[in-house]
Every structure is written in C-alpha cells, then in structure tokens.
Design the sequence.
C-alpha cells in the first residue's frame, strides 16, 4: 500500500473526529457551530454578540415544552437530544444593572412568594397607583415571546380588596396571528403596558384571607393558556 493510501484512512478519521466535535445551534434564528459540548448561558450570549451578557436573557427551546431560561453560569450539554435552539431577550434596565425598586410594602406571605419566584420583581408607586412588577415571567407556548414583564395593581385596602386584571410588556402577540380580545394600551411608570381586561366571576370571587398575589398570578397563567389554546 502506498504512503498516500495508508494515510487516507487517517485523514478520514480526522475528519470524523472534527465533525464529532462540531455542535450546531440556532440562536435567534442564526446558525452557529460550536466545538465545546458543554457551554454556559454566558458563552452562548457572547457567541451571539449579546454583550454585556448581564443585560440579556437566553432561553432554551425544546420541542413540546415552554422555553426555559438558562442562567449566565448554568451549563448546557449540547450532546443531549434536541438541545439546539435558543432565543435571547434584552433585559429591562431594572433586570440588569440597577437595583429593583421597593417603594411600598406587601403582606409577609406575598413577599415570601415573590422571593421564592427566582425572578426579578419590583414594587413601584406611580401617581395614583401601586403595582407589583414581575420581570421575565415565562408564558405558555403560542406567543411570539417566551417571557414578559407582568404588572398588577395593588388597590388601597388590599388584601381585603381584590387584585384585578393584568398588564404585560412587551405587548403579547399570538404566533397564529389571531387577535387577542379585550386588550388596550395603558401608561405606567413611563412606558406603555398591554392591559388584559379579565375579571373574576360570581363563581370565582375574590376570597379575603385566601386569595393573594400567588393565586392571582395562577389565574393570570390560566388566562394566558386559555388564550393560546383557543381555536
């Protein structure tokens, strides 16, 4: 066998090894080829040119599941089946470098629930209104974004007085293009929020001593899922 012939299989093996070390991922619909099988959220953001990474969030999109946020220093194994698609979102300034605002207080059970969310939240007072704002709340599949900021009004007399409706930013849009009913724009805290006029019914009234932020946010998730699943 000639020297050329004897080297050919080695070259092919090298090509196979090189291909095995390549991991193709889509970030915001752009294709990237990586050589490391395990990467962090920070590395993925840097690869996509999202710098500084502290001002962005990155989500992994797996078939049949909601997008899941990846922490900056959280590892992702690209060898796992289906791990290949990611989407990024710029964070609000309050989610990045500035300290979240705490301009009023809440009952202890609400504070404990917010602390346990693992998301950035703010307690903001604007003339005539107090709102709880939760940033980066995941939304069900069917919307054009994987997460949003959600705010709810805290009325005088809460928790005996109910929480009503929900406000989203950015405005939610369905992937299907179908229009969402009973929504309008409303200003708060120097920006525009999408108000969803959704209310409790006589069959599901506010229950003082039982209902609170956690039960209202559960209701918000139900509204989002119901809207996404409409025919």
Sequence:
């Amino acid at each position: 066998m000639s020297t050329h012939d004897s080297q050919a299989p080695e070259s092919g093996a090298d090509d196979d090894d090189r291909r095995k070390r390549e991991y193709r991922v889509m970030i915001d619909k752009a294709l990237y080829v990586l050589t490391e099988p395990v990467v962090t959220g920070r590395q993925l953001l840097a690869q996509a040119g999202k710098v500084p990474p502290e001002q962005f969030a990155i989500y992994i999109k797996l078939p049949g599941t909601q997008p899941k946020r990846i922490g900056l220093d959280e590892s992702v194994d690209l060898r796992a089946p289906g791990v290949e698609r990611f989407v990024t979102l710029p964070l609000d300034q309050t989610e990045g470098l500035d300290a979240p605002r705490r301009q009023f207080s809440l009952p202890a059970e609400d504070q404990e629930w917010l602390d346990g969310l693992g998301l950035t939240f703010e307690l903001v007072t604007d003339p005539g209104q107090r709102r709880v704002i939760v940033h980066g709340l995941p939304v069900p599949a069917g919307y054009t974004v994987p997460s949003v900021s959600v705010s709810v009004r805290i009325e005088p007399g809460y928790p005996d007085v109910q929480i009503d409706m929900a406000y989203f930013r950015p405005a939610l849009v369905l992937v299907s293009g179908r229009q969402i009913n009973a929504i309008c724009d409303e200003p708060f805290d120097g920006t525009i929020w999408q108000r969803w006029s959704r209310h409790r019914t006589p069959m599901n009234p506010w229950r003082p001593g039982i209902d609170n932020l956690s039960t209202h946010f559960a209701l918000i998730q139900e509204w989002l899922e119901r809207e996404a699943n409409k025919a």
Notes: The chain has a mean pLDDT of 85. Residues 3-20 form the longest helix (18 residues).
